[in-house]
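assembly run, all chains below
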Amino acid sequence: VLVLLMPFLREWALLFGPAEVLMLTLWGLTTIAVVVRGSVIKGLAAAGLGFLFSFVGFDPRLGQSRYTVGSLYLSDGLDLLAVSVGLFALAGTIELAVGGRTTISGRSRGEQLSGSTWEGLIAPWTHFWLFIRSSLIGTIVGIIPGVGGSVASFVAYSHAVQTAGSHRDRFGKGEIRGVLAPEAAVDAKDGGALVPTLALGIPGNSSTALLLLALSLHGLTPGREMLTNQANLAFVLIWSLFLSNWLTSILGLAAVNPLSRLTTVPITFVIPTVLVLATHGLYFSRGRIEDVIVAYVFGVFGYLMKVNGWPRIPLVIALVLGPGFERNLYLTLQLQQLGRISFWSRPLVISLIVFSLATLCLPFLRNRNTGKIQGTQEQ
Amino acid sequence: MTRRTSKTAFSVFLLCVVAFFLSQTLALHALARLVPLSVIIPTLAFLIAQVSIDFRGGLPSKDKTLFGNADQYREKALLPKPDETARRQTSNLAGIVWLVSMLGLVYLLGFLVASVLYTFLYLRFRGRKNWRLSAVVASGVGVLSYALVTILSNGSPYVGKVWLWFV
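ok done. output:
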């Protein structure tokens, strides 16, 4: 799908100026805040916090130091890798430590793990059209900026249940289609998510946010420049994704049994090992002990967010998008002041504002409809 | 502290974080305030709304999520019993203390010593494994840590504040 879309993507990307990218960023974040588990208000506030954390360092226009509390280290801004490792890996480690489980799978021996590799291997062929439809759902959901794997799997699962006919009651009790559909959609959404990432430099989810981070570490800027001047690089990324899907499938099949046994390793052995590896990795990425401190601070913060029902994904994505948001906001304001653009007369900008507002209204409209249906049923 | 109080306390904490950002922003040059304020004002509004919701005991579940009432049942199922709440909070605190202790050990003793010592202490006292097993696993982690330090640091690993004080 991506390869077929590439010629159109180049043209499409040229339609997006700073004002459009700014509004697309806001729409993406609004969508993430609305679809993540938990309340919409918490999602939006978490995104706001992510933006604020991304502002730590120097003001790009005036060069004035801000939010650094006098620290020289913070003048460079918060290290994205340290924050991400803290929010997810270290917070996950605390979660494992306090979770009360003895192993990740809850089983103490490999023999107690159920399931058949062969059954999993032939499932996409026995349910071929469901596999294709779910993959298409994943691709389309992935293309929409900000909508990630959880939505893709949710929609694909709902589709699988709706098309199961009289076998609907088997879902949730080990029905293979209940696993096949969401997994196909989640795998396919990565290809779709590359569309906004490569064309506009806007990550659709946390994994493409990390990809964007990795590209920027190598001095590459996804967006119009990459699609026009470095199209070969974009194709390399697309083919890498295609090959990596095959490779991970082959490796996954080969390693499924030993890997599944890893889930039976007692958590008390897993935690110190993960902590040691994460701490070493963090330090050696830039050779700064402050990165380790930042990661641990965000580890505790991420865990408290998780415990108190605050979503972490909007925060990380806003942190990644923050510098671009600031740059595009300044550019838009300057272009508007110079009379080079008229913000309110750009069709794409208006469309994106409408999309953002519609996304924000979606939960309330849905709840209103649900309330009406419940009211009718009660009557 | 109940689960609800903990949620409210965390929302208030986040509100304080944003208030800190606001106070710092007001000290900036007028031109540099524009972008941060465009984020701080709505964030502050969302947080004030969230704190007031938390103080009132949360929204009715139908207003909570795009996926309707799904979370209501999930939250009810996950809601701890009153006697479990205290145990869970102690457990949460212990988890955080164990994590922060790793940072403290690394900061004071450097990577190599901290990795071995932390693994040993964690297995022996948190995991309640026997001395011998704890020592063997800690040694294994020490070897792994040494390999990582040697390969990745080009001979200049962080050795910790204690070592620096002595030298």
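Residues 61-74 of chain B have pLDDT under 50 and may be disordered.

Chain B touches chain A through 69 residues (CB under 8 Å).

not gonna interpret more than that til we talk
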